[in-house]
Design goal:
The chain is built from eleven helices and 16 strands. It is of the alpha/beta class and about 425 residues long. A six-stranded mixed beta sheet has the order 1-2-6-3-7-15, with helices on both faces. Strands 10-11-9-12 form a four-stranded antiparallel beta sheet, with helices on one face. Helix 1 packs antiparallel against helix 4 (about 130-145), helix 4 packs across helix 11 (about 400-415) and helix 6 packs across helix 8.
């Protein structure tokens, strides 16, 4: 049996780096995950797993009451599911998303975003941190378990679920859950600096359409600028943001400072420079509080905008409209004293020598799909720092990817192999 110095399966570092580089070199932007799904399916088959690629009917997924929205157009939703072990016993899930956000302006990068270059111990590229480093850790862990002979000794079932469409809502994980991916515990290997995320907020995206009254620029006072009215609503959203964040009492979230941010990220309107704007659209993001669903947050957002319109002389009679667009990330939590984070923390400390911190995070993630739609206790644990996710020169420390694989292998062994 191949074990390392702390009694865990040995990770093949060179193969792990090769896998990570191969993953980064596939430009799997959300909505175009077919190529990376095919690679992942082949990789899991090569590790001895029984593999199924599920491509559900998109209309059926979108009609699901738990559908979390989407922002990117797509023609397929390829979900890769690998299984190994004994059915009918304890089920353990390792999961990650295959999609990445676009790289942005290449001029802002100092490396090719699709090359997978290594510099100063970190591998660079779009998705290296979010979250192909975590995917490589899963593959590396399963490979190590196989080489150690552990996959043949599982007293239960290990499921690897690699999904599309996390970046725009999580419908890939919903499709996996509907295809039978559920179990006793799950780990998603999103970047967490190898700490353990036990709670996360969520977010909804929205579009405000704000009316005005057109007039010639020389007669500006005869018109009502929709842009001015957007400022009224923007200030109302700032007040609402402050209220919602000040009301939070959970230490996991208050530690973040601003766990539920609201922003307006896109503004558009106007057809002529010398005409008072009669219509402006604004697209933004609204935080979902811990314990809330996306629908709950929508109620709060609509109430804030309605109150602001009612208090304004023009908007009272010409109210702004709200459309919920894109992803609908609910919040999720697993108790800090649940056996999943407690047991994982023990394994992390044994393997790395460092006791991980239990965290809350302000972003949405597929954890909420497993917890809320799948009834599966789930935490986030993975390599890399979320602060560099989606950024130019995105990167992940190779040593963290290796350590994550070591922890996952030791944790699966603890969960699914009986002593003796």
């Amino acid at each position: 049996m191949a074990d390392d110095a702390v009694g865990g399966p040995v990770i093949d570092r060179d193969r792990l780096i090769a896998d990570l580089r191969a993953l980064v070199r596939i430009p799997s932007i959300t909505g175009s995950e077919e190529a990376v799904a095919a690679w992942a399916a082949d990789a899991l088959r090569g590790l001895g797993m029984a593999v199924e690629t599920v491509t559900p009917d998109l209309a059926v997924v979108r009609a699901d009451p738990d559908w979390p929205g989407e922002e990117m157009s797509r023609t397929s939703l390829p979900v890769v599911i690998g299984r190994v072990g004994r059915e009918g016993g304890r089920r353990v899930i390792l999961s990650g998303h295959l999609d990445v956000v676009p790289p942005g302006d290449p001029a802002t990068w100092t490396v090719d975003p699709w090359a997978g270059d290594i510099r100063d111990g970190a591998l660079y590229g779009r998705g290296a941190c979010d979250m192909k480093g975590g995917l490589a850790s899963i593959i590396g862990a399963v490979r190590a378990l196989g080489l150690a002979g552990d996959l043949a000794r599982l007293d239960g079932e290990l499921i690897v679920a690699l999904v599309p469409s996390e970046e725009d809502g999580g419908q890939g994980t919903l499709a996996a859950i509907r295809a039978g991916v559920g179990g006793d515990v799950a780990i998603i290997t999103e970047p967490s600096n190898l700490d353990i995320v036990v709670a996360h907020a969520g977010a909804i995206t929205f579009r405000l359409t704000v009316p005005g009254r057109a007039a010639h620029a020389s007669q500006r006072r005869e018109g009502v600028s929709a842009l001015d009215k957007l400022f009224v609503l923007s200030r109302a959203l700032e007040t609402d943001e402050a209220r919602r964040n000040e009301a939070e009492t959970d230490p996991l979230m208050t530690a973040l400072g601003l766990p539920y941010p609201t922003i307006i990220g896109i503004v558009g309107g106007g057809e002529w420079a010398s005409t008072v704007l009669d219509r402006v659209t604004a697209d933004g993001r609204y935080g979902v509080r811990l314990g809330q669903s996306a629908a709950d947050a929508e109620v709060e957002l609509r109430a804030a905008i309605a109150a602001a319109c009612a208090a304004d002389g023009f908007l009272r009679d010409h109210p702004a409209t709200i459309e919920i667009t894109g992803g609908r990330f609910g919040s999720a939590r697993v108790p800090a004293d649940h056996p999943l984070p407690m047991g994982l923390a023990e394994v992390v400390e044994a393997v790395t020598g460092r006791r991980p911190v239990l965290l809350g995070e302000p972003y949405g993630a597929d954890m909420q799909m497993f917890v809320n739609a799948g009834g599966t206790p789930c935490v986030i644990f993975g390599p890399g720092d979320v602060k560099v996710a989606h950024s130019a020169d995105e990167h992940v420390p190779v040593a963290e990817v290796v350590d994550c694989a070591r922890v996952l292998a030791a944790w699966v062994r603890r969960e699914l192999i009986r002593a003796g």
